[in-house]
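Consider the tokenized backbone below.
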């Protein structure tokens, strides 16, 4: 029997938070992982942890808002591991602010990282997958803010809504290459990003938990489980879909 092929996944923003949890899950699913993050040292630490748990992992520095850097990232994964099967776009920032005061630079930065980033990374990975010829799977981490508005998050929410449409567009365009493209949209998740928003007084955790029918924040593992499913063969006929991991948040319309 031939040796099983080791599939390769890039996870952006994987030095911490949701991306890191996804990288750990995909590593335990058997993927070799490129941890791609703007913070190289933190990415190297995360990759070293995966290696010490017995997985194949490497770190690469990328600013996802830079298209050339995204191309270099895809090339790095292939140079390191020989192929590319999965891309997860999780890199992101959050910078709430009153819409009357948001500067053009802050608006552009948010759109650059949260919307241009997933497109540039998907384009780079898509070019590699098309050249390989056997397809692949991509998951974009969007948010409940793609569907539900919060105050002071105009650029963030517009970027996430854009990511949902990017997901659908790439899914139907690249179906011919057997590249599936889906999105996962978490509710408030227990990460450093949320901790920062709580510290800034922008979230009251008790209120948030009361608003979520299942009564708690999303955990990183909840999100990682959804990604693990969507990139797997079990989701072979699912593409262009946004799966909300939100404890019922978006369904809830009572008060
Ligand atoms: N935390 C939440 O409540 C929540 C909810 C819904 C969606 N999301 C989304 O999930 C994703 C991950 O969020 P998180 O909570 O893990 O955030 P986080 O701040 O904990 O981690 C984000 C990671 O992205 C990296 N990053 C930032 N800018 C980058 C860039 N230009 N290029 C490459 N890497 C960059 C950071 O270094 C960091 O490691 C984001 O897209 C976020 O919008 C988060």
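A designed sequence for it:
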């Amino acid at each position: 029997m031939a040796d099983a092929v080791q599939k390769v996944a890039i996870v952006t923003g994987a030095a911490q938070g949701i991306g890191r949890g996804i990288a750990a899950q995909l590593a335990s699913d058997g993927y070799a992982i490129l941890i791609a993050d703007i913070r190289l040292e933190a990415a190297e630490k995360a990759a070293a942890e995966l290696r010490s748990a017995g997985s194949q992992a490497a770190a690469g520095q990328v600013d996802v808002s830079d298209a050339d850097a995204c191309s270099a990232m895809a090339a790095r994964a292939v140079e390191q591991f020989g192929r590319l099967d999965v891309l997860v776009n999780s890199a992101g920032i959050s910078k709430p602010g009153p819409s009357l005061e948001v500067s053009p630079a802050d608006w552009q930065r948010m759109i650059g990282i949260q919307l241009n980033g997933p497109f540039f990374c998907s384009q780079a990975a898509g070019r590699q997958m098309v050249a390989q010829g056997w397809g692949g799977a991509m998951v974009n981490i969007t948010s409940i803010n793609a569907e539900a508005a919060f105050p002071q998050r105009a650029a963030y929410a517009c970027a996430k809504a854009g990511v949902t449409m990017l997901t659908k567009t790439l899914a139907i365009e690249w179906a011919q290459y057997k590249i599936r493209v889906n999105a996962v949209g978490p509710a408030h998740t227990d990460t450093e990003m949320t901790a920062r928003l709580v510290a800034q007084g922008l979230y009251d955790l008790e209120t948030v938990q009361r608003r979520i029918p299942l009564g708690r924040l999303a955990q990183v593992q909840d999100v990682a489980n959804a990604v693990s499913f969507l990139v797997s063969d079990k989701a072979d006929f699912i593409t262009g879909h946004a799966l909300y991991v939100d404890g019922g948040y978006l369904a809830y319309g009572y008060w």
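The pocket of nicotinamide-adenine-dinucleotide is lined by residues 12-13, 15-19, 37-39, 62-65, 90-93, 113, 141, 143, 186, 188-189, 191-194 (CB under 6 Å).
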